[in-house]
Design the sequence.
């Protein structure tokens, strides 16, 4: 029989820490701590399967669930000697969400459940603390109403402020028992007004409604947004833990706190966290009160502090990872309420992983799996330029919650952060305090600044996980979210003003402070010595470990020597894509390109191309020399020619102005001539028009010039004693005859250049697979091509029927509706475009078993796409230079994960087709084509 509820308490638990899929992270942690003899209040966890049943049953729990909950509740009651709803000895419980993947603050929790007009009196009598009882009751009503009835918390907060004003006190702690009892009445009246019903007095009804509300919170907007950002599947559901309450608000010998076994922002091996005396857990994480540093607990309650240190150290060693824990102290007795692997910044993740290897807690293999590729990228994010920073005054200082530099226009609401970002602005989200509902705005903003909060508040935890520079608890700023401004002393900063924050120091500066490269990048550029940056040393160590495990090679897309140098510094093993058209846009070359395009005869075109040849040759010499023998894949001209000419609309305006003002007649004639050529070249759908290999077929002299520049450059570099390995790539091939036409030109020119120089070079000629027809006829193309490289940008456009430039208008809706899980131009559509890739790999290698195949589209730097490339059997991925470290780590992680799961990369060996078998006579066909029967690129 399927088990749906798991009990823990009295030193024994039905589950364990390995059951996160069933118990969620919180439930698994409670079970594991219970089994380890750590003081945990008893309770039970309702499994994630029940959450799935809840949604399958139109958001209604199964009818049998109430009886099962009562049965397990009876075990809790027996252990603690209290009963739910008992007026003399009332049991109170918390009802808490907890999914497999930690989603801090995204779902709901209810504390103090079981209080009503009778049990509050029993609680007061039993504890001898009337204030505590009424404080707990008012907290329960507001939390229950906001979660179950979706009432705004601000309404309850206003009632509290009104009471404090009447009493003449500033803090909640200044309200006495009578004040809190009055608040309970105010809160119940507010529930009746806003929810249209009385606050429920039956504890079992409270439990049922709270439990179902926790399940319902799995699909609230902030939880869905969070899952979309972090690619957490919707089908998992959340578990629900019902735990006997322990109270941190029973006086100064009580308290509550959260912490980490190491600093989650920097990775420093230092006990890190915060706590509040005489408070409940929500007070700490909500950022409503500024908490104390956890080290102060050593002075306040030294025995409890020592016990907490001993327990959390044991937990870190047990889990072999940084622990994020919650605790409550009830009248001097410590209880652990949660432990889970802590969220951390990229800087901290790398340092902690390396430190733990040095401490022999984990292996290098474990370390590679501990750091997410996107976390590694955070080490490459820019920091403020120190010299420029001095020009911008520091107006305030808060807590350095999440490192990095961020500057942008101030906005005060999450929706505005999204809207302003969508229109192209850089923004900083400034709030009094963030809450889980702000998740979408935090994701859109460059950084986050709050007036309230501490090292474990919502803004800190989420900002740290996102890698967003975050400054919290900046009490000097007085935020007015209604007026959309904040004040610092006499200064007023309004919405739209530029502000800069430093998440590493907590400083807030006026203006748009320029940034510069991070320490890691400075080392790679030679601006810092490696020994000057501990962060770089850990970064390099982790990647060295990663390289031992990955199978995929990693190349970079680079068009100029400077980019190639960056690629080498980041560990690239070659250039997977050099886009030659980027070289044509330089100021001194564009007029020559225009001359070539305007030519009306082949002779004139060749004359212009002869002028371009030295430029192209020098470009390629720089690349070959920089790469020092590593392979360089050079794509022949790809974009349509009209992209090099002025826009038609602009020319028409210029001509109209010249005519209206009787302008220079010669200039007018020139503009009209260019307009005529632009009109002649105009295409309704340029993406599918006269570009790629089609240009080389209609203007073979362009391919000739580029091939000559490539091989003359390669010969020159080789003559200086440096090896070269050019790979010439023909773009947009859909029919093998297109490829053979262009390849014949490349081979002829290569032979001419090598014969003239008296030197032979190893080279290959291959193609981009970016047209669906090329994928399905890959067996035929592979007869002639010596390598494939998937251009997944165009393959996605043509295979999906989406324009990359226009898809932004609807892709967000597609993702929200789960039509696609991610933007298909950022992460490969494995089900659709991935199938085209599988077909091409299978058919290509059926013709040539060891055909070299890579990917050079934007997807080459996306970790999920890299995982697919590994599994489908590609040889390499190519991405932008700054994504190379990410790709190296991602390739290692998928190799380790697959090895652990017993999976092997699929390197297809399909049966040879009739066409593939016919290709066995390639030498004869080569001879007939004038290729001398020699495999292209082979040494003599």
Sequence:
């Amino acid at each position: 029989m399927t088990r749906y509820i798991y009990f823990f308490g009295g030193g024994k638990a039905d589950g364990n820490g390995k059951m996160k899929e069933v118990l969620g992270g919180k439930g698994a942690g409670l079970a594991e701590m219970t089994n380890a003899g750590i003081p945990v209040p008893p309770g039970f966890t309702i499994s994630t399967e029940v959450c799935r049943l809840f949604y399958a049953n139109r958001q209604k729990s199964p009818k049998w669930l109430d009886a099962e909950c009562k049965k397990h509740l009876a075990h809790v009651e027996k252990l603690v000697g209290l009963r739910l709803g008992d007026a003399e000895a009332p049991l109170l419980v918390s009802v808490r969400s907890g999914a497999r993947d930690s989603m801090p603050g995204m779902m709901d929790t209810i504390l103090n459940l079981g209080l009503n007009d009778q049990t509050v009196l029993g609680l007061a009598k039993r504890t001898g603390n009337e204030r505590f009882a009424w404080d707990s009751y008012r907290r329960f009503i507001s939390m229950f109403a906001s979660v179950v009835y979706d009432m705004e918390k601000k309404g309850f907060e206003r009632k509290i402020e009104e009471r404090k004003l009447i009493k003449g006190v500033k803090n909640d702690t200044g309200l006495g028992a009578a004040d809190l009892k009055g608040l309970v009445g105010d809160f119940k009246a507010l529930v009746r007004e806003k929810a249209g019903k009385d606050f429920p007095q039956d504890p079992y009804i409270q439990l049922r409604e709270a439990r179902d509300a926790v399940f319902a919170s799995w699909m609230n907007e902030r939880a869905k947004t969070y899952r979309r950002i972090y690619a957490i599947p919707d089908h998992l559901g959340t578990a629900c833990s019902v735990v006997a309450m322990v109270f941190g608000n029973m006086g100064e010998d009580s308290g509550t706190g959260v912490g980490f076994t190491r600093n989650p922002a920097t990775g420093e091996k230092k006990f890190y966290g915060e706590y509040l005396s005489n408070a409940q857990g929500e007070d700490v994480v909500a950022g409503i009160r500024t908490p104390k540093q956890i080290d102060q607990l050593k002075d306040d309650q030294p025995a409890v502090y020592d016990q907490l240190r001993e327990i959390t150290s044991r937990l870190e060693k047990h889990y072999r990872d940084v622990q994020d824990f919650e605790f409550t102290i009830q009248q001097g007795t410590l209880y652990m309420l949660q432990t889970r692997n802590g969220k951390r910044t990229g800087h901290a993740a790398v340092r902690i992983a390396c430190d733990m290897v040095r401490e022999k807690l984990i292996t290098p293999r474990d370390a590679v799996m501990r750091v997410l590729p996107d976390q590694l990228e955070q080490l490459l994010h820019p920091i403020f330029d120190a010299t420029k920073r001095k020009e911008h005054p520091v107006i305030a200082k808060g807590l350095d919650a999440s490192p990095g530099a961020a500057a942008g226009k101030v906005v005060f609401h999450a929706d505005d952060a999204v809207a302003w970002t969508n229109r192209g602005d850089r923004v900083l989200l400034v709030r009094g305090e963030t809450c889980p509902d702000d998740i979408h705005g935090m994701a859109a903003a460059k950084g986050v600044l709050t007036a309230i909060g501490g090292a474990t508040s919502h803004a800190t935890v989420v900002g740290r996980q996102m890698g967003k520079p975050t400054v919290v608890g900046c009490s000097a700023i007085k935020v007015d979210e209604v007026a959309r401004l904040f004040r610092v002393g006499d200064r007023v900063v309004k919405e739209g003003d530029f502000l800069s924050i430093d998440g590493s120091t907590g400083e807030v500066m006026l203006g748009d402070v320029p940034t510069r490269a991070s320490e890691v990048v400075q080392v790679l550029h030679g601006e810092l010595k490696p020994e000057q940056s501990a962060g770089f040393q850990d970064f390099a160590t982790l990647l060295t470990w990663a390289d031992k495990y990955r199978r995929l090679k990693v190349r970079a897309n680079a068009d100029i020597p400077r980019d190639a140098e960056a690629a080498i510094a980041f560990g690239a093993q070659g250039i997977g894509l050099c886009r030659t058209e980027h070289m044509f846009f330089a100021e001194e070359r564009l007029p020559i390109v225009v001359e070539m395009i305007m030519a009306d005869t082949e002779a004139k075109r060749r004359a212009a191309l002869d002028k371009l040849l030295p430029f192209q040759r020098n470009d390629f010499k720089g690349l070959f020399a920089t790469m020092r023998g590593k392979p360089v894949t050079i794509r022949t001209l790809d974009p349509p020619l009209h992209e090099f000419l002025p826009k038609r609309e602009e020319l028409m305006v210029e001509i109209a102005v010249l005519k209206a003002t009787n302008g220079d007649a010669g200039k007018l004639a020139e503009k009209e001539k260019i307009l005529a050529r632009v009109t002649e070249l105009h295409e309704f759908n340029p993406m599918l028009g006269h570009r790629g290999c089609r240009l080389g077929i209609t203007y073979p002299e362009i391919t000739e010039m580029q091939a000559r520049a490539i091989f003359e450059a390669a010969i020159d570099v080789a003559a200086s004693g440096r090896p070269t390995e050019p790979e010439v790539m023909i773009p947009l091939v859909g029919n093998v005859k297109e490829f053979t036409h262009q390849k014949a030109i490349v081979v002829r020119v290569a032979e001419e250049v090598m014969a003239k120089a008296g030197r032979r070079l190893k080279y290959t000629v291959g193609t981009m697979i970016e047209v669906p027809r090329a994928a399905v006829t890959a067996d035929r193309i592979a007869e002639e091509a010596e390598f494939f490289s998937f251009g997944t940008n165009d393959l996605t456009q043509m295979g999906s029927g989406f324009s990359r430039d226009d898809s932004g208008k609807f892709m967000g809706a597609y993702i929200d509706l789960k039509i696609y899980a991610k933007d298909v131009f950022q992460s490969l559509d494995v089900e659709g475009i991935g199938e085209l890739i599988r077909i091409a790999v299978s058919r290509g290698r059926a013709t040539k078993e060891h055909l070299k195949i890579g990917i050079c589209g934007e997807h080459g730097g996306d970790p999920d796409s890299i995982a697919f490339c590994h599994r489908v059997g590609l040889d390499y991925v190519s991405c932008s230079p700054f994504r190379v470290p990410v790709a190296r780590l991602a390739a290692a992680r998928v190799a380790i994960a697959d090895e652990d799961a017993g999976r092997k990369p699929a390197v297809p060996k399909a049966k040879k087709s009739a066409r593939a078998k016919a290709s066995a006579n390639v030498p004869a066909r080569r001879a007939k084509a004038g290729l001398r029967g020699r495999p292209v690129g082979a040494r003599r």
Observations:
- The chain has a mean pLDDT of 88.
- DSSP finds 39 helices and 32 strands in the chain.
